[in-house]
Amino acid sequence: MLRRLYDWTMSLADHPRALWALAAVAFIEASVFPIPPDVLMIPMVLAAPRRAWLIALVATVASVIGGLAGYGIGHFFFEGVGRPILESLGKADSMDAFNTRFNDVGFWAVLVAGITPFPFKVITIMSGWTAMPLGTFFVTAIIARALRFFIVAGLLWVFGAPIRDFIERRLGLVFSLFMLLLVGGFYIVRYL
């Protein structure tokens, strides 16, 4: 089933309203959809390199707005459903401790999930669930998603089709290693 969803998403790249399709995919991927917008963005940039920056901008804006929807899902559904269940089980105190720990590193969690292949929707929903400050979430989501989509668009714009395999197979690993080094560097500077 996931393969059919992937193929369907890829087919949208040829559609006359591909930018709108990209916006829709980027929006819903940030809150519920399993296929990342890169699947649609890559063939769109390869087909029209002169529009690379517009395509990246559309993906960024739609993904951040979708992230706000994911934040809302976590915030409103947790309060209405999740918290009463946890309170009835005597787990409200442990959830408060988790919320504090998550929000202490919230900027980094959103940044890492927004850049790497980690499902962004998980972090958007958790950010709302833990009541991360909305401003922190919003600014970090903009930074993270812009980095991800503009780097992909830039690589495709400069290198064209030969870089496609690298992006699809290895760019997530490169982003993950970069974030690990970045976070590790900050940790070393701060604690050593």
Report on this structure:
With 192 residues, the chain is mainly alpha-helical. The protein has one domain (51-191). It contains nine helices and no strands. It has helices spanning 2-11, 18-29, 38-47, 52-88, 92-104, 106-115, 120-129, 134-159, 164-191. Helix 6 (106-115) packs antiparallel against helix 7. The chain is globular. The model has no long low-confidence stretch (mean pLDDT 80).
Layout of SSEs?
Blueprint: H1 2-11, H2 18-29, H3 38-47, H4 52-88, H5 92-104, H6 106-115, H7 120-129, H8 134-159, H9 164-191
Helix pairs in contact: 2-4, 3-4, 3-8, 4-7, 4-8, 6-7, 6-8
Briefly, what is this?
By secondary structure, the protein is an all-alpha fold.
The averaged pLDDT comes out at 80
Structural class: mainly alpha
Q: What is the helix/strand order?
A: HHHHHHHHH
Broad shape: globular
- The radius of gyration computed from the alpha-carbon positions, rounded to a whole number of angstroms, is 18 Å
Helical coverage, percent range: over 70%
- Count of alpha/pi helices: 9
Strands, count: 0
Distance between the terminal alpha carbons, to the nearest Å? 48 Å
Number of domains: 1
Strand content: under 5%
What characterizes the major β-sheet?
Answer: none
Poorly predicted runs are none
